Amino acid sequence: MTVNTLSLSDSLRDYFLNMALREPDILRQLRESTMTHRVAKMSLAPEQGALLIFLLRLIGAQRYIEVGTFLGYSSTAAAIAMGEQGQVIACDVCEEFTVEAQAWWKRAGIDHRTQLHLGRAVDTLERLLAEGAEGSFDCMLIDADKPNYPNYYEYALKLVRPRGLIILDNMFLNGRVAEPQSSHPRSVAILHEFNRQLRDDRRVEHCILPAGDGMTLLFKR
Predict the structure, then answer these.
(1) d(CA 79, CA 85)
(2) Which of 57, 77, 98, 218 is 20 to 30 A from residue 51's alpha carbon, by CA?
(3) CA 61, chain centre distance (Å)
């Protein structure tokens, strides 16, 4: 037994991934392709993708929305997890990245149930609420511009059903949130305070995991 999370050596991480992943071939291909991209760090880690699939299947999710799509790893994982009846809404501002995501959706055979909203996520989320989507999603993943995380979270609380999931990625910002410095980008101070706010927010059950760059799981009460 140990009271601290074990640090992973390279060999232990390789073993962990070999034991932990049941990654579908299309997801593996997408991930390996993404690793060659100039900003590959924007993607979920494979163990985070496995956790996303596990959680969506655990709650029987059928409607999933994400803010931040990049090349499509998380949206593809979500669509695979939910099966043919599942619906994915993907929000992103970058046409360059999402053109690639759409190509992967087609290769994975999920393009007919994956809908891209290109533009400012706040505008998309506001429009969904105006169209009556409040409480209609089982899960929302937030993995986009960090200064807007608190805003996206408040939208998530409206769009996700009671007993649904809200997931936030990059909550550690490469460890900088532990000791914010004046020289750090503004996003570090924002997430440092936001992490505290989430810990104390009684509207949700809260868990933060040292997976990837820090992953927060919230269960809406």
Answers:
(1) 9
(2) 98
(3) 15
